[in-house]
User: Which sequence fits this backbone?
């Protein structure tokens, strides 16, 4: 037994992660349900093959790892993880550590942690896709701190680095890491949706070509919006279809796929009563995008909207500012949800450290996250939109967001995430809202009682019959 760690599941992510671990100088044993894949993986590992021990049986796999063992599972989330744990545990010692590194629902990770009892178990969220897994993902750990400490040196070594600081952090007990990963994915949905919405304004409102749109994204990638998602959006817009010579975007069907992590975030936000309208809007938009036939029929019935907007009405700099405002509001919502979960689940989630592990390696990595980390370090309790640096930016950009949302509404362009971001902003800055009417209604029909502005709760109205 020479391997410092073991990994099960040599699919897209597992294979990349195993190579990354070997590349960082750790000997690793691997096992895969289909043995042929294990051999092919080892043969294709080049120089790194000497650090990799391929095994054909679970028994041989376990025997190849130094005790006390640490074993990463990289198999599909759900039942396969439970099955794999059940197959593995009988072969392990009481101090051997199992690490589920797939996209588990954090409720499952909570359950598995409870089922593990005193047996070491970690659930870690890994973000960054295949490329991230191979060359440096963002890692969000959950489980017992002492279990994390056993493998921290490996996980920090393989993770992405931001100015030398590793993007791998322990988030808290049980499913805390997978929870943070879910919110990451929710924010990712909203970030992508807002970019898709401004793409729509440029394509349908301003009648810009894909090349012009690509150039715009490339320009924005040099400013406040600098991020992986803006960068790749520019590259997507710039790419031609080899078969037809048309822009790739013009040959891709406008129905978005999803694996469900955004949906989990939204469902959890409802349980927590955490307002994350931009993320909810993004999930709804994906659901709606798949109703292609109904959309086509509605377009015939109602006619298409008068999309065209004059360039001087909506300059590109206004759209850029609107996206900046929308992005701040979306992240403010995401971090607010994390703060609420931290209280509700007794987790002490480290908000500044979360912003820090998202700075590199993951899909939502961006220049703005660096400022968010700083703002959250200054005061993790405060809603991000109120942190001075973001408040200043919002003061400068919410007018642009209003312009964009208003023009889009007038021209029949749907902006679900950006407009919900604006509604969130306006609701947040309205000291005296309209829920007094709702309280009046609730008391009228259900005698639910209300608080009075001059003091006291449980009052009832003298309602007319
Ligand atoms: P793949 O489908 O590429 O690979 C799945 C692996 O799991 C294969 O090695 C497969 O073995 C094995 N496997 C499947 N079912 C079982 C089972 N019942 N028992 C044991 N092994 C099984 O998946 P990915 O690598 O893409 O994803 C793995 C995990 O990582 C998932 O939880 C995913 O959500 C998560 N993830 C994926 C990302 C991505 O960008 N792809 C990003 C971040 C997380 P076999 O060869 O025998 O089929």
Assistant:
């Amino acid at each position: 037994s020479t391997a410092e760690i073991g990994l099960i599941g040599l699919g897209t992510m597992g294979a990349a992660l195993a190579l990354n671990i070997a590349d960082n100088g750790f000997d690793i044993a691997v096992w895969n349900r289909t043995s042929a894949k294990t051999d092919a993986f080892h043969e294709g590992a080049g120089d790194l093959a000497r650090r990799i021990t391929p095994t054909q049986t679970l028994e041989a796999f376990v025997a190849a790892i130094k005790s006390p063992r640490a074993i990463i599972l990289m198999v599909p989330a759900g039942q396969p993880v439970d099955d794999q744990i059940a197959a593995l545990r009988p072969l392990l010692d009481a101090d051997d550590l199992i690490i589920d590194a797939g996209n588990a629902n954090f409720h499952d990770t909570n359950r598995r942690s409870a089922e593990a009892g005193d047996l070491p178990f970690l659930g870690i969220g890994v973000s960054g896709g295949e490329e991230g897994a191979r060359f440096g993902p963002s890692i969000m750990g959950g489980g017992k701190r002492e279990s994390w400490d056993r493998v921290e040196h490996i996980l920090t070594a393989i993770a992405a680095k931001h100015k030398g600081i590793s993007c791998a952090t322990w988030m808290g007990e049980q499913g805390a890491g997978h929870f943070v990963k879910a919110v990451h994915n929710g924010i990712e949905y909203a970030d992508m949706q807002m970019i898709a919405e401004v793409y729509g304004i440029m394509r349908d409102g301003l009648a810009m070509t894909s090349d012009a749109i690509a150039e715009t994204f490339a320009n924005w990638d040099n400013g406040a919006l600098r991020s992986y998602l803006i960068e790749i959006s520019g590259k997507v817009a710039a790419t031609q279809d080899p078969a037809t010579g048309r822009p790739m975007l013009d040959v891709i069907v406008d129905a978005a796929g999803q694996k469900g992590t955004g949906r989990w975030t939204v469902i959890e936000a409802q349980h927590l009563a955490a307002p994350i309208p931009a993320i909810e809007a993004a999930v709804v938009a994906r659901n709606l995008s798949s109703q292609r036939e109904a959309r086509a029929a509605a377009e015939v019935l109602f006619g298409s909207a008068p999309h065209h907007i004059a360039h001087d009405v909506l300059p590109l700099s206004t759209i850029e500012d609107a996206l900046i405002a929308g992005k701040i509001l979306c992240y403010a919502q995401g971090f607010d949800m994390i703060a609420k979960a931290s209280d509700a689940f007794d987790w002490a989630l480290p908000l500044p450290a979360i912003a820090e592990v998202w700075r590199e390696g993951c899909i939502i990595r961006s220049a703005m996250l660096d400022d968010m980390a700083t703002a959250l370090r200054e005061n993790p309790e405060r809603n991000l939109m109120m942190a001075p640096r973001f408040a200043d930016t919002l003061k400068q950009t919410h007018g642009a967001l209003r312009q964009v949302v208003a023009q889009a509404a007038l021209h029949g362009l749907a902006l679900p995430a950006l407009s919900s971001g604006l509604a969130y902003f306006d609701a947040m800055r309205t000291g005296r809202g309209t829920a007094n009417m709702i309280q009046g209604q609730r008391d009228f029909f259900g005698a639910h009682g209300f608080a009075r502005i001059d003091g006291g709760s449980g009052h009832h109205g003298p309602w007319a019959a």
Remarks:
- The chain has a mean pLDDT of 97.
- The radius of gyration is 25 Å.
